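[INFO] parsing input record for Cytochrome c oxidase subunit 2
[DEBUG] input buffer:
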Amino acid sequence: MAHPTQLGFQDAASPVMEELLHFHDHALMIVFLISTLVLYIIIAMVSTKLTNKYILDSQEIEIVWTILPAVILVLIALPSLRILYLMDEINDPHLTIKAMGHQWYWSYEYTDYEDLGFDSYMIPTQDLVPGQFRLLETDHRMVVPMESPIRVLVSAEDVLHSWAVPSLGVKMDAVPGRLNQTAFITSRPGVFYGQCSEICGANHSFMPIVVEAVPLEHFESWSSLMLEDA
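[DEBUG] output buffer:
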């Protein structure tokens, strides 16, 4: 999860997020190079009184500064399109979970099980135990098996919400009357935090998302226990 004074992204916990981080670094290097070149040209033009006639009128330079930006845009567009297709790919998910947004909590239904579902409310500050995070902990976590393709169907009961977990590279709008879907694979066990990312009313800041990735054996034990309690 994020920590104070952090400037970059959270550590990636899914293959898609790793690709997004690599693309971010790739695009940032291009921006740095362009910014350095433009800054150098500005300083050179301001600080010298000499004029180069080949810069004022040169077909070669005009060809270069027309073709070079097009090449740079292609270098940015190709990996971007690749990641867009990767994010939209959902192949044979091992588990499907329906996430419903409400004012102001989330409810989860494990559709592969007959009667496995629960509401997930934020734990009030006064009820937190040492080690828990304020405004991020929930009374019920969305538990998933690690290294398995998970499909999440996202919708809302009342107003617009958005189901987002940054470290998994997942963000999907929850629209009343519409069923959107996204997918992710957790590459390691852990607890990953997110929040509603769409302004949804007075308590918008108080409907966190907690995804806990565990080994498959632990997930089976958890699901059996939840079904017994139900």
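[INFO] The helical segments are 15-47, 53-56, 59-88, 216-229.
[INFO] shutting down worker
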